Amino acid sequence: MGLLQEAIFGIVTGSYIAIAAIGFTLIYGIVNMINFAYGEYLTLGAFVGFFAASAIPVPLPVAIVVAMVGGGVISIVLARGFFTPINHTGPVPLLLTSIGLGIAIRNAIRLFGGRSARYIETETTTFRVDAVPDVSIGSVDLLGGFFVTSEHLIVFGSAVAVFLAIHALLTRTDVGIAMRAMGDDESLARVRGIDTQLIRDSVWVLAGVLAGLAGVLMAIQTNVSSTTGFSHILQILSAAILGGAGSPYGAIIGAYVIGLALAISTAFLPSSMTGLSSAVAFAILIAVLLVKPSGIAGTEVREA
Amino acid sequence: MSALDRLPSGRGDRALIAGVACLFVGGLFALTPLQASLPSALYVFVEVGITFVIYGMLVLGLDLQYGHTGLVNFGHVVFFAVGAYATAMLAAQDSFSGIALGYPWPLALLVGVIAAALLGLVVSATSIRLRDDFLAIVTLATAEIFHSIFVNFEGVFGGNVGILGVPRPIAALVGDADTRLIATILVIGGITLITLAAVTRLTDAPYGRVLRAIRADELVTRSVGKSTIVYKTQAFVYGAALAGLAGGLFALYNGAVAPGFFTIQVTVTIWIGMLLGGAANHRAVLAGLAIIMGLRLVSRFGLSVTPVSGDVFAAFRLVVVGLILIAVIRFRPAGIWGDPQELGVDQ
Fold it and tell me: How far is B206 from chain A (nearest CA, A)?
């Protein structure tokens, strides 16, 4: 397979990671916590989408909307139940609580859903381009023929729509401007009469909606199982930190960097070591934290 | 100075005496024809007990890092794994996969401890200045990177099979299964107790006060002339070396190492044990760990009386473990035996 094909896979992976990373980084910037249970939000969203598409059944676009609404509801309920009561205790208790919540949810899903993977059935059209010449360097083919499926296009299109919607929300609406104000300085925002709890709640809902969307897109691309979200949480986290924790625009760039790095390292690694590609993402993460801890666009995270 | 003054008095010294006594009795079982018999109902207790005393060393090291110094290390398992793999690769003979060099095991154990300490030094040199939650992420990512390296470099680390043929010094001396289990838990438990004595000595000393001062307020500690980075690095390396020792002992007890033994689940178990017992109190963290590991016994016994599959039970136990973590942080942030005032948390 050519590098061009791997790059397409990378962009698709980057697209759903980007959607999730925006939600993750909004929670980080405004609630000031690293939400390690966020992967489980994706899983829950994927399951909601799966049941809507197969049990009810509704057409795929409706199922996606149901998953988004479901994700938003789940997110606000979990936040109200677990995170809002200990909001004042600081980042570490919040991080630990989210780790506990993640374990509990992941295994509760395993308890009721089993370990098996489920598939959302979709009709796929594949567009092939074989006219591109091969440019080989060693075992790696730099161009080569490639294909794009309609699923790829749905994922990428959804991601672009989300980017535009988030940009409009953050710059054109009162609630979005209030979110940015709170991310900047919570005390000042409160002095200016912003209801900080209301904004926090709306961030939870927004992050849940994004998680639901990312989860169902992942489910369409691959499958639904109890570890769908968890297996991506470190990539989402890497993308968010790479972009500068708290910055949605940085998270988008970070997500595509991670997605492409994963895909291209798969192309260059020997076939017995493709599992190492996830280590590449974490190596990038550590390198970013060491060289420029504030990420592409963000705040200082070093103390001394 | 009379001879009486030399008699042990502190908590740490009691642990030291108990530890030496355990080692001595364990040594008797191992080296003399003395035999012990164990009712078969107790096997499972002793097996979980051996895992507990090994994890005990991990939790003591983690408590030195988080409980005393405030370093949020969420990748503690990586030092455990590196200690175990270094020991296994040096000591193993005729492994089915991976590297087996066949050196004597005491040397391998020493190298295991040093390897874990060196990794701790590298991680702290690069990341110790990061803010709490980001240090947690870097350590977690380090653990994940090493996990995938162990899985993927099959020629070196044996892939998912791991490294087999690690010598088992106690098993080599004792043929009888009952006596072997008793000797193992006594020897490793004795080492854990001696570790407890050592960390108690360290944290009761003025050195421990500096560590707790760093956790309470790093800026103030720096302003009275303590180099907080040096202290934090030392605490981190001590914790890593202890985890390496635990890993080496695990390899020598288990006779094999594989990536499956060193998952994030280990980190989570010892973190929950530490928080449940009460950070910054050595005996409390061990008690908390005992409670969490006791849950394993409950689920093993529950498994035999209920008609559900093992997978269901494992999932159920993990749901309970997750909820315990949430409940502890919410309702008892200092843990069961912790001192809320000292830890700076309000109840």
Answer: 23
Q: Can you give the pLDDT of all 304 residues of chain A as single tens digits?
A: 677 888 888 999 999 999 999 999 999 888 888 898 999 999 999 999 998 888 878 888 899 999 999 999 999 999 999 999 998 888 888 998 998 999 899 999 988 877 777 887 777 777 777 766 666 666 666 666 777 888 888 889 999 999 999 999 999 999 999 988 888 888 888 898 888 899 999 999 999 999 999 999 998 888 888 888 888 888 898 888 888 777 889 899 999 999 998 888 877 777 766 667 777 777 887 787 777 776 665 555 554 4
Radius of gyration over alpha carbons of chain B, in Å? 20
Do B231 and B69 contact (CB within 8 A), yes or no? yes
Enumerate the residues of chain B whose CB falls inside 8 A of the CB of residue A34: 133, 136-137
Do residues A118 and A242 make contact, with C-beta atoms less than 8 angstroms apart? no
Interface contact A97-B322, CB threshold 8 A: no
Report the greatest alpha carbon distance in chain B. Answer: 66
Tokens of B209: 């006060």
DSSP 8-state assignment for residue B101: -
Domain ranges of chain B: 9-262, 266-347
B287 close to B336: Cβ distance less than 8 angstroms: yes
DSSP H helices, B39-159, are: 43-62, 77-91, 105-127, 132-152, 154-157
Burial class (CB in 10 A: 0-12, 13-18, 19+), B58: buried
- Concatenating the DSSP letter of every residue in chain A gives --HHHHHHHHHHHHHHHHHHHHHHHHHHHHH----TTHHHHHHHHHHHHHHHHHTS---HHHHHHHHHHHHHHHHHHHIIIIIGGGGGG-HHHHHHHHHHHHHHHHHHHHHHH-S--B-------EEEE--SPP-EETTEESS--EEEEHHHHHHHHHHHHHHHHHHHHHHHSHHHHHHHHHHH-HHHHHHTT--HHHHHHHHHHHHHHHHHHHHHHHHHHS-B-TTTTHHHHHHHHHHHHHT-TT-HHHHHHHHHHHHHHHHHHHHHS-GGGGGGHHHHHHHHHHHHHHH-TT-SS----B--
- Residues in chain A, overall count: 304
CA nearest neighbour of A249 among A16, A22, A31: A22
ipTM: 0.85
Nearest-CB residue to B136 (from A95, A238, A283):
A95
pLDDT at position B2 is 47
- Reading the block at residue B312, the tokens are 């269901």
Domain formed by A3-291, architecture: Orthogonal Bundle (1.10)
Is residue B163 helix, strand or coil?
Answer: strand
Question: Which residues contact residue A225 at a Cβ distance below 8 angstroms, ignoring those fewer than 6 apart?
Answer: A43, A113, A115, A116, A117, A118
Could you tell me how many CB contacts below 8 A there are between chain A and chain B? 137
Structure tokens at B164: 């087999």
Residues 61-80 of A with CB under 8 A from B: none
pLDDT category at B5 given cuts 50, 70, 90 is very low
Q: Cβ contacts (< 8 Å) between B322 and chain A: which residues?
A: 100-105, 107
Contact in structure between B208 and B202 (CB atoms under 8 Å): yes
Amino acid at B333: P
C-beta atoms of A276 and B228 within 8 A? no
B248-260: string of b/e by CB count within 10 Å (b at 16+)? bbbbbbbebbbbe
Q: Tell me, what DSSP letter sits at residue B94?
A: S
Give the pLDDT mean for B200-221.
90
